[in-house]
Amino acid sequence: MIEEMIIFILLGVFSGLIAGLFGIGGGTLIVPVLVACFFSMGFEESIIVHLALGTSMACIFFTGLASANAHKKKNAIDFGVMKPVVIGIIFGSFLGAIFAIQIAGSILKIIIGLFALFVAIQIGFQLELRRRRSDNKSTSYVAGSSIGFLSSILGIGGGIFSVSYFKSSGLSLTTSIGTSAACGVPIAIFASLGYIFVGFNNSVLPPMSIGYIYLPAVIGVSITSIFTAVYGAKLAHFISEKLLRNLLISLMLTISIYMIAL
């Protein structure tokens, strides 16, 4: 148990830095590492990926809160643009968790890996989402629902989607990252509630689990991630957009190879 907690604590260090630096909630790193940990711990294979997803969402709440607070201090969150998106996030995140449980873990791993590859290609070729800027709230509701739904399925804070969306709304990259980090908090809350709801009576889940959330991992990751997320957010304001982009590409390619090959 001590060795496992050390792994979870170290995971928190790196996931916190990633959350603050890229505004992506840290889930892109948390899910693959938790999958590997849960396999080594001998958990039932049929629930490992789902358990990693639910646990990741619970971890993202603490990481996202710390990251969002750091970006707020830098005045890098546009609450006006964010508010209608969050309304959609509330519904999409909860439904996404319910839907994810219906998909086999082996398929989810491949989906996560392919998506990470797609993001690396998108960023590498700078294939940005473009749309007319509009104050139509219905567009923001739909965008929020979609971001929350997909984030729950992938176990992430939604930054991969929301950064592009906010950037296409006319926000700078730094403000897009900060606003995205803030959106990660409601995504984590309502996705976690969904994973708790669908796994509440599952007897296959390991001890110290609440639904599809493994509490020791949440505690271990959160202990350090809430501190390192602050440093990641600060770092994002001091490095160039080009370097930020290249780092994110490298991260996505690594995750893609790992999840598909595992």
Structural class: mainly alpha
Number of separate domains:
1
Task: Output the helix-strand order.
Answer: HHHHHHHHEEHH
Distance between the termini: 24 Å
Report on the architecture of this protein:
- A two-stranded antiparallel sheet has the order 1-2.
- The protein is mainly alpha-helical and 262 residues long.
- The chain has helices at residues 2-22, 27-40, 45-73, 79-100, 105-124, 137-154, 159-168, 173-199, 215-236, 241-261; strands at residues 209-210, 213-214.
- The chain has ten helices and two strands.
- Helix 1 packs parallel to helix 9, helix 3 (45-73) runs parallel beside helix 9 and helix 4 (79-100) crosses helix 6 (137-154).
- It is globular and about 50 Å long.
- The chain has one domain.
- The model has no long low-confidence stretch (mean pLDDT 86).
